[in-house]
Specification:
With about 675 residues, the chain is α+β, with helices and mostly antiparallel strands. The protein is built from 18 helices and 29 strands. Helix content is about 30%, strand content about 25%.
C-alpha cells in the first residue's frame, strides 16, 4: 500500500483522498462495544455544557442562562464572559461533573453527565445556586436557566414532537433512531417556566436567537420568557426555568428500541431522580479509584492532596473537553492562485487546546494531548489518533488547524480559516504512537495474539499513512541547504502588513522571532530536531506495525544521519554565541513606526484623508544579511530537548549553563520563551 500511495500521488491532485478507508471505520479496534461506548458524550467543548453523539447529524443538548444584570445570554464559551469553569471530574466515557462560577450573574452552576447501562441512554443534571452568603440570600439575583434539545438536520424529517408543557421532546435521527428527551425541574421557591420551538439550520447561532426571543418578550409583555410558541417543523426545543435559586433541571434521554416507548420510559427511571443521584455518586467514586490505579499518586500532607486535586481537574478538563466535529476544511493549493477548495467532509474526534479561544483541533497540540489521554484510556487515544490520521490527503498532508462545520468556522477570524497544503505542523502525533508501540510490544510479550492486540491492529492499519506523512515532510519541508529543513508559511507580506517579525504559525511557536526577512534560504533548528525525532520514532514504530525490514532500516539510516553531531553543528551552531540558532536573512534593525498612508490612486478620496498605520521599517544602516538569528529562547533548546547533544560535548555543558542563567530564560517558576527585556 505504501508503494501504491507513492505511485498514485506522484502527479495527482494535492487533495485527493487517501486510498484507504478511514482508520476509525476498522471494526476490529473501533467497532462494536467500543463505538457504542463512545457514541454519546460532552463532545461540544465550545459551549459551557453540551451533549452530542459522534455522528455527522446528532441530537443536541445545550445549556444557556441569562445574566439579569446585563441581559446577555451565556452559552458559547467566551473569553470576555469572565467566568470560572471547568470539569472537576470526567472519565471520558460515562460520567462528568463541571463547576461554573458566574459572579456577574450571581450564580454557581454545577453540570453533571452520566450514561445508563446500555451507553445509548444518558442523563444530564444542571443545578444553579446563588453565589451569595446564605445570610444574604434575600440579595440573590433570580436564576434564568434554559435547556434546549435539538436535531442538527434540516427539513421535515428533523421536526421534533414537543409536548404542550415542553417537558417531553421526541425525534428520530439517522444512526440513533427514535428517541425521547424528558425535562424536569426542581426548585425550593416560586418559579415560572417558558418554552419555544424554532426551525433553524444554524446551531452556531442559537445564542443570538435566544437573546432575540427574550428581548422581544420583555418588550412586548414586560416579562422574561421565550414566547411559548412553536414554529412549524421545529428542530429546536427550548425550555426556560425562572425563579429564586437553587434551581435544578434534569434531562433524561433514551432511545426507543424495538421494545417500544414504554420500555424506553422504564429505562429512563433507572437514570432519573434518586437513581441518577446514586449513579453520579458511584461514578465519581469510580473515577477517584481509577485515578489512583493509573497514576499512583503519593498521598501525604494537605499540600499533596491539593496537588492531586489539581491533577484530577487537569485530566478531567482534557478528556471532558474532547469534541466531535464534522465538516470540510477550506484549503488553498500553491500554484492555484487565489482559488480555495473544500477538503472533506470528514469527521474529527479530538481534544482542544482551549474551550473559549481554540475550541477545535490543532495538529501539534494533539500529540501532546494524547500522551495524557493515552495513559488514562488507550482506546480513546487510539480513536482520536485514527481520526487525525484519516484527515490525511493522498500525498500525506494533514491540515494543521481543523475548522470543520459552521459552528467551528464561526469562531475563527477569516484570515485564519484557509489552510495551505504547503504548510506543516510539528509531527507530535508520533509521540503517542510511540506509546502505542510500547503497549503493543508489552502485550505481545505477555502472550496476547496479534489479532486481539488492539494497539498492534491499529499500528498495522495506520502505518501506510505514517509512512506517507513522513515522506511528505521530507519532500515539502526540506531547506535549500542539503540536510536542512524550513517551515513554510512565512512571508514578507506579513512584514509589509505591520508584523515586526513575521509569524511562523506552522512551527507551533507562532510568534517566536525568526529571521526578520523571510526567504527560501532559511533553515530552522526546531524543525531539524523534529525530523531527527520523527526518523528515530518511525524506526521503532515500523517493526511493530509489521513494516518490511528495509523500511525500518531506511528510517534508522535517516535517524543516524540527522543525529550526526557534525551535521547539526554545520547547519545550526553559532560558535560566536555558543548557541543553536536558525539561519536566515536577518537584521535586528527593524522597528514599528506610525506612518501616514495616503488613499490609493483611484479611490476617489482626497489626500488629506490619509490614514495612520503602524508599519514595519528597516533601518538603512542595518540591512538584512544571511547569518544566524541571534534570538536565544525555546528554539535554542531543541537540540538539548531532542537528545542530540553528546554527553561529552562542550555544547551540552554550554547549553545547561545558559539554561540556568537567570539573566536569560531561567525563573523560579519555569522557563520563559525568551529572555526578559
Amino acid at each position: 500500500l505504501e508503494r501504491l500511495v507513492r505511485e498514485a500521488t506522484r502527479d495527482s491532485d494535492k487533495l485527493a483522498a487517501f486510498p484507504a478507508p478511514p482508520l476509525q471505520a476498522d471494526a476490529r479496534p473501533f467497532g462494536g462495544e467500543h463505538s457504542n461506548a463512545l457514541l454519546w458524550g460532552t463532545y461540544r467543548p465550545q459551549v459551557y455544557f453540551g451533549v452530542r453523539a459522534r455522528l455527522p447529524r446528532s441530537p443536541l443538548l445545550g445549556l444557556m442562562w441569562l445574566n439579569p444584570r446585563t441581559g446577555s445570554v451565556r452559552h458559547a464559551c467566551e473569553q470576555g464572559d469572565g467566568l470560572s469553569y471547568g470539569w472537576e471530574r470526567h472519565d471520558g466515557r460515562r460520567f462528568g461533573r463541571q463547576e461554573i462560577e458566574d459572579e456577574e450573574a450571581g450564580l454557581e452552576i454545577t453540570t453533571w453527565f452520566a450514561k445508563g447501562a446500555s451507553g445509548r441512554d444518558w442523563s444530564a443534571r444542571i443545578e444553579a445556586h446563588p453565589l451569595v452568603d446564605p445570610s444574604e440570600a434575600d440579595k440573590a439575583q433570580p436564576a434564568y436557566l434554559i435547556v434546549y434539545v435539538a436535531d442538527e438536520g434540516v427539513g421535515p424529517d428533523t421536526a421534533l414532537d414537543i409536548s404542550s408543557d415542553g417537558q417531553r421532546v421526541m425525534g428520530d435521527t439517522p444512526g440513533i433512531g427514535p428517541w425521547v428527551a424528558r425535562i424536569s425541574h426542581m426548585s425550593d421557591g416560586e418559579r415560572h417556566v417558558s418554552g419555544a420551538g424554532l426551525q433553524t439550520p444554524h446551531m452556531h447561532n442559537l445564542t443570538e436567537v435566544a437573546r432575540g426571543m427574550i428581548h422581544n418578550q420583555v418588550r412586548q409583555t414586560g416579562r422574561v420568557g421565550l414566547g411559548d410558541h412553536a414554529q412549524h417543523e421545529s428542530n429546536v426545543a427550548m425550555y426556560m426555568v425562572m425563579g429564586a435559586a437553587p434551581i435544578a433541571v434534569d434531562v433524561v434521554f433514551t432511545t426507543v428500541e424495538k421494545d417500544g416507548v414504554a420500555a424506553a420510559d422504564s429505562r429512563a427511571l433507572a437514570i432519573a431522580s434518586d437513581n441518577l443521584s446514586k449513579l453520579l455518586g458511584d461514578a465519581e467514586d469510580a473515577f477517584d479509584e481509577r485515578f489512583d490505579e493509573v497514576f499512583e499518586p503519593k498521598w501525604g500532607n494537605e499540600e499533596d492532596e491539593r496537588t492531586i486535586e489539581v491533577a484530577k481537574r487537569a485530566l478531567s478538563n482534557m478528556v471532558g473537553g474532547m469534541g466531535y466535529f464534522y465538516g470540510s476544511s477550506v484549503v488553498s493549493v500553491p500554484g492555484e492562485g487565489d482559488r480555495v477548495r473544500e477538503h472533506g467532509p470528514a469527521a474529527l474526534f479530538t481534544a482542544v487546546p482551549s474551550r473559549p479561544f481554540f475550541p477545535r483541533g490543532f495538529l501539534w497540540d494533539e500529540g501532546f494531548h494524547q500522551l495524557l489521554v493515552g495513559r488514562w484510556d488507550a482506546a480513546i487515544s487510539r480513536d482520536a489518533l485514527a481520526h487525525w490520521l484519516s484527515r490525511m490527503s493522498a500525498d500525506g498532508w494533514i491540515p494543521r488547524e481543523q475548522i470543520l462545520g459552521a459552528e467551528a468556522r464561526s469562531r475563527v477570524p477569516d484570515e485564519f480559516v484557509t489552510q495551505s497544503t504547503a504548510n506543516a505542523n510539528p509531527p507530535t502525533l508520533l509521540l503517542p504512537l510511540m506509546e502505542a508501540t510500547k503497549r503493543a510490544e508489552a502485550a505481545a510479550a505477555a502472550g496476547i495474539a496479534d489479532d486481539v492486540n488492539a494497539d498492534r491492529l491499529f499500528l498495522v492499519a495506520a502505518y501506510p499513512r505514517l509512512a506517507q506523512w513522513y515522506h511528505w515532510f521530507n519532500e515539502t519541508q526540506r531547506g535549500a541547504a542539503p540536510g536542512s529543513f524550513r517551515w513554510r508559511g512565512r512571508s514578507m507580506a506579513a512584514a509589509r502588513a505591520g508584523e515586526l517579525n513575521p509569524k511562523t504559525l506552522t512551527s507551533g511557536l507562532d510568534d517566536y522571532p525568526r529571521a526578520s526577512h523571510p526567504s527560501d534560504k532559511e533553515r530552522h533548528v526546531d524543525l531539524y530536531c523534529w525530523m531527527a525525532l520523527a526518523a528515530s520514532l518511525m524506526a521503532h514504530i515500523a517493526p511493530a506495525a509489521g513494516a518490511p525490514q528495509e523500511a525500518a532500516a531506511a528510517y534508522e539510516a535517516d535517524a543516524a544521519r540527522l543525529a550526526d553531531f557534525d551535521s547539526l553543528n554545520a547547519l545550526h551552531y553559532d560558535a560566536a554565541t555558543k548557541t543553536y540558532a536558525d539561519w536566515g536573512n536577518h537584521t535586528e534593525g527593524v522597528m514599528l513606526k506610525w506612518v501616514s498612508v495616503e488613499p490609493p490612486p483611484g479611490s476617489g478620496l482626497p489626500p488629506q484623508q490619509a490614514q495612520r498605520k503602524l508599519l514595519r521599517r528597516t533601518r538603512r544602516d542595518a540591512p538584512p544579511a544571511l547569518g544566524y538569528v541571534p534570538q536565544y529562547g525555546y528554539v535554542s533548546l531543541f537540540p538539548l530537548l531532542m537528545g542530540l547533544l553528546p554527553p561529552s560535548s562542550t555544547q551540552l555543558g554550554d547549553a545547561l549553563e545558559q539554561l540556568r542563567d537567570p539573566k536569560r530564560i531561567w525563573s523560579e517558576h519555569g522557563l520563559f520563551l525568551l529572555p526578559r527585556g
